[in-house]
Each structure stands twice: as C-alpha cells, then as structure tokens.
Structure prediction request, 701 residues.
Amino acid sequence: MFEQPVNAIQMISAERIDSEDRFFAVSLPWSPIEQLNRSVEKVGILSPLHVQKTTDDKFRIVMGFRRYLSCQNLGVLNIPCIVREQDDEGALFIEALEDNLATRGLHLLEKAHALMKLRRNFKLEDQILMENFMPQLEIRADRFHLDRYLDLAQLPESIQRSLLDPLEPDVALKLSSWNDQEQNFFLGVISRFPLGKNKQKQLFGILDELRALLRQGGALFQAKDLDGIWAECGAVAIERDESLSLPERFNRAFEGLRRLRFPRLTEHEKRYQELKAALKIPPQIHFVAPPYFEGDQIDVSFSFGDSAELLEVAAKLDAMAQKDELKEILKLL
Amino acid sequence: MKPYRPEQIFVERAVENSPITKNVLDRLPGVPTRSIDSTENLLEQSQRWNPTIPRSKQSLILARHKGNFFKPCPGRQAKEGFKGVCCNYFVINYASNCHMECSYCYLQSYLNFPYMTIYANEADLVTELETAFAQSPHDFFRIGTGELADSLALDPLTGYSRVLVEFFARQPNAVLELKTKSNCVENLLGLQHEGKTVVSWSMNPRYVQAREEHKTASISQRLKAAGECVRAGYPVGFHLDPLVFYPGWDTDYRDLIGEIFQTVPAASIAWISVGSLRMTTQLKETMRRRFPNSFLPLGELVPNPDGKMRYFKPLRVGMYRQVVEWIREKSPTTQIYACMEGPGVWKEVFQRVPKAVDLGQELIQIFG
Prediction:
C-alpha cells in the first residue's frame, strides 16, 4: 500500500499564506463556499491545509484553497497546516486533484481548469490526459471532449462566472465568439429570464442568427446591434409589461425575435391569420393549417353535443366553404 | 478545381494489387504510404481523436469495400410521416468523402469514417453489377456514383471512370450517371461509352459557387467540361440543386439556365433536376461552425416531416415553378424532376405525382 511520510501539523498565521498563488488550485476563486463557512464556524478546520514553503516567511497552498477562503471570511488568524517538503509539483497537483475528487463533486469548469493545468503547467500529453485523467474526472475520453473542456477553461472570466449559474456550457462556448457588449447583453437577458437548457439554447440560437444576418447585410430589419434587435422585436416593451408572467414575457419576446428572423414566413402567417379571421370560425370548430404550411390540407375538427349543434356546425362549414377567403387560404398552402 | 494531394496514404493489404491502387500510387509519388491490415484501427482512432474535417481529409485510404456497392438511392426510403417522390435511382459507392468544401455538403455530418476513402476492389464491383443486371434483364437501371463522393473529382488519380464507362457501354439494361462539381473529364474523352454514361454537373449561379462551393471548379469550367463531353458524344445532365434563395436569385438562375442551353444543345441533355437547399439541424450547426460566413443557414428554413429543414413550402414552390418555367422556355421537352420532394410539392410544381417506376421510365427515354 502507498504510504506517505507523516508530516506534523503546524499552526501557521493566515497572513503568511499567499492565497493569490493558485498554482495548485483545483477549485475556482469564485465558487460559492457558504456551506463550508457554516461548517468551519461550527467545528473549525478538521482537515489541515497542505502548504509548500516558498520563501523564508511565506507559504503557498497545495490543498485547501476553499478552507483558506473560509478562514479569511471568518477572521481565523492561525490555520492548521501540513508543510509539504516534496519538490515534485506535478505529483503534488495530482494529489490535490485526488483530494478534491475524494471529498466533493467537481464543477465542469474545475475539471476544465484541472485538465488545462495538467497540460500547460505539467506538460502532459493529450493522450495521457485522455487515458489517465479524463475517466477519473468522469469525462468521456476522446478528443472532442478534451477540446471542449480546454475551450471552457479559456473562456473570458465573465462567461466562466456565469457558467456557475445560469449559463449553459454549450451556449457559453459559442458566446465567447461574440464581443464584450454582446456577451453582456445575452448574460443580462438570461439573468432576467430564468430559462431551462433548451430555451436558453433556442434564445442564443435565434440571436446568433440575427446577429449573423446583421453582419452579412442580409437583414430585413432596421436594428444595428443586439440591443436594437431586442427593442425592434418589441421585447423591451414586453419586459416592462407586468400584467404578464415571466414565462409569458419570454415567449412573447421570443416570438418577436422569430418574426425578425423569418420575415417572409411571418408575412405569410399574417395573411393566413387575416383570412382565417374573415371566415369567422365559431369556437367549436378547430381550423388548423399544417405546420409551416408544409402540406396541402387544412385540418378541421369540431365538437357537438346534440343533433342541432351538429347541424349548426355543418351549416357553418357549408358557409365557410363558399367564401373567397377559404380559396385564398388554400392558395397559401 | 483544386486538385487533391493527401499527406498520407493507407493501403489495405487486400487491395494492394488492385489496378486502382496502382493508379493512385503511381500518380501520387512522394506521398508517404503505409500498408494496413484493416481500416478498423483507423476508425477507432478517428473516434478517439476526433480529427477536424480538413485534417481527416488529408489521409487517403485505399480499402476493400466489404458490403454491397450497389443499392437503391436513400431517397427511395420513406421516413416516418414522409415519403418523397422517387425517381427509381440506384447508387454505387466506390468512394466516400470529398476533398472539395461545399458549405452545405451533407457529408460533413453524415460520414462516421471521416477519411477520404476509395474502394479499390473494382473487380468485385463489376461482378456485383453484372449479377444484378443479369438477374433483372427486363428492368432498366439508372445508377449514380455521386452519393458519398464526387464522381469525377478523384478520377485523375484513380482512373475509375475507365472501368465503369466501358463496363456500362456493354450493358443493355443500365445507364451510369457521373455527377460532379469538378471539370475532370479528361479521362472520359477517349472512352468507348456508347451513350450509356451521362456526365452531369451540379450547378449554381456564380454568386453561390464563389461563396459556398469552395475548391470546386468554377461555373465556367464546369460548362466548358460539359461542352467537351457533348462533343465526345456523351449525354449530359444538370442538377440545379441546392436551389438557394437570396436577393437577385431569380435573375441569376435565369441567366444560368440560359448559359447552360447556350453551351449544350437541348438534345444532349438527358435530364435536369431541381432540389431546394436542405439540411438537418446537425448539419446547420456544423455549417455555422465551419463556415461562419455562409449565408445559407440564415435562410428561412423550417422543419419538414423528413427531419430536414427547407425553405418554407410556398417560398420553395415559387422558386421551383419559376426555374421549371425558365427551363421549359429553353427546351419544352427536356426531362425535369424534383429531388427529395414530396407529392404535395410535385403536384404544385408539375401538376402530377408520378410513381417511381413511371418517373424512372421517363428519365431513361433517351436511351431507347
């Protein structure tokens, strides 16, 4: 069995520990630690930090960045530490990684940074990362996933912070190709509308395409940037409408974006709705065009409770069949 | 067209002595070549290392095709809730992947073996076709090779056209279509074809070709090559596919159709197909990533019952009608068909919904 030399626990003044040196850090400096704060406040530091001496007076942390931060938050002056004598920084980092994996689940960004450090700081080859580390981090060991995690580790800090909540990783990776102002716009929108994974992707997708239309000069709308698009599709006004629930506001704003994205289809739908309204269809008759007009038949269904109602519906259908508007609707398909 | 030169060649031992392998190796001197027992390891490596598409195209694999070369066109298979109008077409896949880079190419999201692959066991291909044709002597087969690869782009390396054109020249009940975006017709010009090979080109206006069909032959080069094939006695075909909507599309397509009929006599045109831009959501995502300047994914594409996205029906029906009308103005009798479209669109564009067998018969009329 693997045995480590036993090092004595020492109480080291918090001031002598350089927490800015994050060479061995696995956790992220902005990870939430409220739960750990409560624990430290209640029972103190149960597992000593592992530190390495850097100069005569200073130490850097090998393991225990979050515990150190908690001590700082709580004003702890002296912290129990084990001073590590080894020089092999790679071995110490792997130990730190093991320590984290053994005690908590890592956020995907922490996994991303761990892979990045193993590659950049310790010069490990990609094949070693895939064979030895990705399975341990519970990441599928292939090039696609390695590249994806390395890309996540290199995202701008503002996007990484949003990845903790509410930003989706797939969206985050794509968002990094937008400029700062555009990134802030999107992060602002998703902070105002709490969206599930799919809706967030849909919102990003449609905004990304509208943005591309702007850049390529193929847009049929007036706006010059994403803020302008948000206003032009009516979303600014919709956001202010407190008579609507938040999901209703989002759905309406999204519908506005869709109208800008699909102007010809929108015109077609509008014409269909006008003609349909002119048919004055009673509520017991459902009259539905095929989705996106992809089909050549209108779907009609109706309900009735007695013979008289059925005759009434039949008379109404007969009247509809005579109208020019119906012929016009059929031409739209 | 930008000629293809791989960085490395892998030759499966089973095809080391094939004439196609010899042709390729003779024409690519200096390219590092390795013998391999099978392509399985390469597949495993590609899944593990997930090389980029351009990177994987730098490897050329000469392999033995283990399954059937010959099969019905995938357009014949009904998807759930969707059955396209079928033109009774068959395909033979003697290669897979393409070194040209059309932004809209479905191979980007379709192939799971990402390398440029040529199946060099051409004797097996010929035997398989002979058997199929002999088993159905009263059927007439229209067969293309352009499903998973361009039919002619690698022909300067492989010389596959000689094998196929001369084989089809001897077949009483089959015709071959070589579909391309290249101008590699040199090998064809001296062959005995007996009019049983149709050389066809995918065509788009120059505006689209320049922006979206990277590394392909220019439209002028394609038309010049078509003229050369006509002079060599080949029937030719054109595929206005994908039809792309953009401001000014109508003028550009009308001009293109005019240019085609100016270059090629209508009597030499076996068929013209039309098909609108279509893509799966996965392909759309790949296109946005690989070709961020492409305007094609930004069109008004909506989901269709076959799982692909196309321009919404009234828009594309309008396009088809105009294009068909412009072709009819030039030649009222040229065979025109729509590819990968359902009965509804056919009815609106052609005022009929033919059965596969009937449409197939119409398209082979010029072969007697």
Residues 21 and 60 of chain A are 6 Å apart (CA to CA). The longest strand of chain A covers residues 78-84.
